[in-house]
Write a structure and sequence with these properties.
Layout (H helix, E strand, L loop, with lengths): L1 H11 L1 H31 L12 E6 L7 H9 L6 E7 L6 H11 L4 E6 L8 H9 L7 E4 L4 E2 L4 H6 L7 E10 L4 H24 L10 E4 H6 L2 H5 L5 H11 L3 E11 L6 H18 L1 H6 L5 H12 L3 H25 L11 H15 L4 E4 L2 E5 L5 E3 L10 E2 L3
Parallel strand pairs: 1-2, 1-4, 2-3, 6-8, 9-12
Antiparallel strand pairs: 4-7, 5-8, 6-7, 9-10, 10-11
Helix pairs in contact: 1-2, 2-7, 2-13, 2-14, 3-4, 7-15, 11-15, 13-14
């Protein structure tokens, strides 16, 4: 990667490359400050919604394996301050280690309406969607909440998610998320990729009126879900959350953002695991929103400034801009996290340069291939994240692994 940019600098000229890097750094600094203000305003300054009816809800949780803090995450959904809700825990194997956790939860919450669904039935290539689809026939209620297994919520979460449905035109409500409780170096890196990069950018986009679904927590009206094609419409998509939001909107329903934020508990413990996740994330954005993905290159000003130091040598202007950019990103992330009640250690902010470089490398890696190797099967990922099996003749070296 560094060699590529050294070659670019040699061809374009050091002065030209230096000017581009400085411009990118200045843009990134301005973007960081504006995004921080917009994110705080959108996430924290919105007026509370008036009390609304509390219709019954079915929570659909896809599970696989005994993940980090799984019991605490799932228990937070059982403790909801909500009059009537059902929880469907969906698994594919009777030997799944998560079943032990579910047994303990059923004993701890004997009055909760909990059902465990175990089925290997597949309707498409996305295993998480297959899992939830198997639980869908057992859903009792017309508000359906889909949420990943690494999400932890506060007792008022279901009330916040249900409130926008008082408007009959709303078909789907989604929630922003922040990373909390990270452990170790790579857990902290994963948290930074969410708290310092994704959350401010996504919240500022929402402040401009953009609406999109996020898999951390999505509540959908059954009528809108069926009109969008339900799980059959999502079964072959890598970015099932993005596609669900787009499909609900195309069916004539509105998307809304819930108040507040849920917590995502990072379970990644290794550098390869973190980098694979970053590439998958970046590649999914490229395939679903190509214009936004390529335009985001200019926002990697920290990495461009670092490369500029390697190409032209250290200087006061570049060094000062790097330091100010680092400080601005750290301050914005710390301030937003504190106001949202996040539990990210302030010491993790010293890892921001490393996080920036990983994000830039993932951006480049996301451009390298449209193929993924998923559980021994090679797929080509088409527009909107659709998975399409390809022939075994396609060289395995072209594939970028996707975590299960």
């Amino acid at each position: 990667m560094i060699g590529l940019f050294m070659l670019t600098a040699a061809v374009a000229g050091r002065a030209a490359f230096s000017a581009v890097a400085l411009a990118s750094g200045a843009f990134t600094l301005a973007f960081t400050l504006v995004a921080a203000v917009l994110a705080r305003r959108f996430l924290l300054a919105r007026p509370a919604r008036a009390a609304a009816p509390l219709p019954p809800i079915t929570v659909i949780k896809p599970l696989k394996g005994d993940e980090l803090d799984l019991e605490a995450n799932l228990a937070s959904f059982c403790r909801q301050d909500y009059p009537c809700f059902q929880i469907l825990f969906c698994l594919t194997s009777p030997d799944d280690p998560a079943l032990g956790t579910l047994s303990r939860l059923k004993k701890e919450f004997p009055d909760a309406d909990i059902e465990v669904v175990i089925s290997k039935t597949r309707i498409g290539w996305n295993p998480k969607v297959n899992n939830m689809a198997n639980g869908y026939p057992f859903a009792k209620y017309d508000l359906l909440l889909m949420s990943d297994s690494d999400i932890r919520v506060t007792p008022g979460f279901l009330k916040r998610m249900a409130a926008p449905f008082a408007d009959s035109s709303v078909g789907l409500v989604t929630s922003f998320y922040q990373a909390s409780g990270a452990r170790g170096l790579w857990g902290s890196m994963e948290a930074l990729s969410i708290n310092a990069h994704f959350l401010p950018q996504a919240a500022s986009a929402a402040a401009f009126g953009m609406r999109f679904a996020m898999g951390a927590a999505m509540m959908v009206r059954r009528q809108a879900f069926e009109a969008s094609g339900a799980f059959a419409n999502l079964a072959d998509h890598l970015a099932d959350d993005f596609w669900l939001g787009e499909s609900v909107r195309e069916s004539g329903w509105r998307l809304e953002m819930a108040e507040g934020c849920v917590d995502s508990i990072p379970g990644i413990e290794t550098a390869p695991g973190h980098f694979k996740h970053m590439i998958r994330w970046a590649r999914t954005i490229r395939l679903c929103q190509p214009a936004g993905f390529y335009a985001s290159l200019i926002s990697h000003g920290f990495s461009f400034l670092t490369l500029r130091l390697l190409v032209t040598g250290p200087d006061a202007a570049g060094g000062a801009l790097l330091a100010v950019l680092w400080a601005a990103k750290a301050a914005a992330s710390a301030s937003l996290g504190a106001r949202l009640g996040g539990r990210q250690s302030s010491r993790a902010l010293w890892l921001l340069p490393l996080s920036e470089w990983f994000a830039f490398a993932a951006w480049i890696g996301a451009c390298a291939s449209d193929t993924v190797l998923w559980r021994g099967q090679l797929f080509c990922v088409r527009s909107s994240g659709r998975l399409e099996p390809v022939t075994a003749a396609l060289a395995i070296s072209r594939a970028l692994p996707v975590e299960p």
